[in-house]
Design goal:
Elements (H helix, E strand, L loop, with lengths): L17 H4 L2 H9 L2 E5 L4 E3 L7 E7 L2 E6 L5 E7 L4 E2 L1 H6 L6 E4 L3 E7 H10 L1 H27 L2 H16 E4 L2 E4 L5 H8 L3 H13 L3 E4 L2 E4 L2 H7 L5
Antiparallel strand pairs: 1-8, 2-7, 3-6, 3-8, 4-5, 4-7, 9-10, 10-12, 11-12
Helix pairs in contact: 4-5, 6-7, 6-9, 7-8
InterPro entries: cNMP-bd_dom, cNMP-bd_dom_sf, Env_Response_Regulators, HTH_CRP, RmlC-like_jellyroll, WH-like_DNA-bd_sf, WH_DNA-bd_sf
Protein name: Transcriptional regulator
GO molecular function, one term: DNA binding
Length: 235
């Protein structure tokens, strides 16, 4: 691994997908309970505040998890991809959906009725404990992001986010490391708890310094070491 992209514990991704945590036979049994669905890029898989009817196991493609405030501000809470589960919290508690899940690219997923999912967990304690552990890890990552938002400037938060995305979604290109997941500037702003205008200004400063280059839903990191210094990650 490039030393400029060190593992983090407060990123937007699950460190290990849900399906990869299950025993092979448990994962196979769970998938057999559902039906496969496909979603076009930028189409919703799950809508905030809707009643829960099913969970989704993502097979291919990446999604974003967002929540909207009454003011209209939309926060980017997480990225979920192959092997991840979404909609499980509402399915287990019976509460309305707490967030919206939207495809960032073409997505294939298995939809499992919420009642069948709860019955599966009741009959498979190891899977239930696995889900509990995943939930705890997600809460810990969320807590770490909240702490970062409280203690860092927008510029520092953005630098840290870009490094984390490069670590989890980076691919080598002629200009450096391209973040492969297609996020808009508004979505980047939602991930760091800032306005779109503030993130645009921060990105312009990074572009002017040759640290990054940007395009439509693309960011290429040319100088990760400078991002690490901005994010105070060298200490």
């Amino acid at each position: 691994m490039d030393p400029a992209f060190l593992p983090g514990d407060g990123g937007l991704d699950d460190r290990v997908p849900f399906l990869a945590r299950l025993e092979n036979e448990d994962g196979t049994a769970l998938r057999k309970l559902g039906r496969e669905m496909q979603f076009a890029p930028r189409s919703p898989l799950i809508q905030q505040n809707e009643p829960s009817t099913h969970v989704l196991l993502i097979l291919t493609g990446w999604t974003k998890v967002t929540a909207s405030a009454p003011t209209g501000y939309q926060a980017l809470l997480a990225l979920r991809g192959p092997g991840d589960i979404v909609g499980e919290s509402a399915a287990v508690t019976g509460s309305p959906r707490s967030a919206t899940v939207t495809a960032l690219e073409r997505v294939r997923a298995v939809a499992i009725d919420h009642r069948a999912f709860r019955e599966f967990l009741s009959g498979c304690p190891s899977a239930a404990f696995t889900l509990l552990g995943l939930t705890a890890e997600r809460m810990r990552a969320s807590d770490r992001r909240q702490l970062a938002h409280a203690s860092m400037s927008v510029r520092e938060r953005l630098a840290t986010l870009l490094l984390d995305l490069a670590r989890t979604h980076g691919r080598r290109s002629t200009g450096g490391v391209e973040i492969a997941v297609p996020l808009t500037k508004q979505e980047l702003a939602g991930a760091v708890g800032a306005s779109r205008e503030m993130v645009q200004r921060a990105l312009k400063d990074l572009r002017d310094r040759g640290v990054v280059s940007t395009g439509r839903r693309t960011v290429v990191i040319a100088q990760p070491d400078i991002l690490r210094r901005i994010g105070r990650l060298d200490a």
